Amino acid sequence: PRGLGVLGLWWPSTPHPHGRQSASSAMREDIPRLCLLSMGVTLGVLYLARVAKPHVVAAGVLTTTYLGAAYWVSSGKSWFATSKKRAWVLSLAIALPLGPASLAYDVYLMVTGKLWKPEAYFESHPAADAAATAFLSFLVLDSVVGNRQYREQFGLVEGWLHHVGYTLVCVEGLRGPFTTGLLSSMNIEVTTIILSIGRIWPEHRSDVLFGVAFFL
Fold first, then answer.
1. To the nearest whole number, what is the mean pLDDT of the chain?
2. Which residues lie closer than 8 Å to 25 by C-beta, 6 or more apart?
3. According to DSSP H, which parts of 49-156 are helical?
4. How far apart are CA 18 and CA 5, in angstroms?
5. What was the pLDDT predicted at 116?
6. What is the b/e burial string over 81-97, where b = at least 16 CB atoms within 10 angstroms of the residue's CB?
7. What integer pLDDT is reported at residue 7 of this predicted model?
8. Which residues of the chain have pLDDT under 70?
9. pTM for this structure?
10. From its phi and psi, is residue 4 left (phi > 0), alpha (psi between -120 and 50) or beta?
11. Can you tell me whether residue 179 is helix, strand or coil?
12. Rounded distance between C-alpha atoms, residue 31 and residue 26, angstroms
């Protein structure tokens, strides 16, 4: 993990044939380095927390790769030049799989009669471990990329304190273990999907839909 972090930190920028780069192309070329750095930090956290099981490590690597790819593809869009919009790309990318997965798990708990049983939320399952690791990976990557490419949108409370706090929660969930409880609570990411879409594409913003989804 330490080696990956160092590799990411010193990833060289591709020289522009004319000696200058636009802001967007410079950010685009910076993405692989930031992803490698984030992956190194994520694996380092898992290792130090002593939860680096094979399926957990795999989830961390795959999630960072998926999120990095989504962010890189988005960097080619015209709206990416606006920091308020690109700041929501990673949030949307992680919410798309985690929100529906959490809803499916809650339906499973309801069907099996475990929804109101406290012990159902204090267990470990490979899928739940993967979800907790995926969210942890997002928190790390969003912190690294946010500090570099949309710092003005990454504040102290909603950025650093939020991300550090939830990173600790994910780590404790993996150590607890209570990753099933974490997976069940990730249904809130459905509202993140609605919110992110509205922030990136304002013409699709729906405050009513967001409010209804949030309270449901």
1. 90
2. 16
3. 54-74, 83-86, 89-111, 126-149
4. 30
5. 94
6. eeeebbbbbbbbbbbbe
7. 43
8. 1-23
9. 0.88
10. alpha
11. helix
12. 9
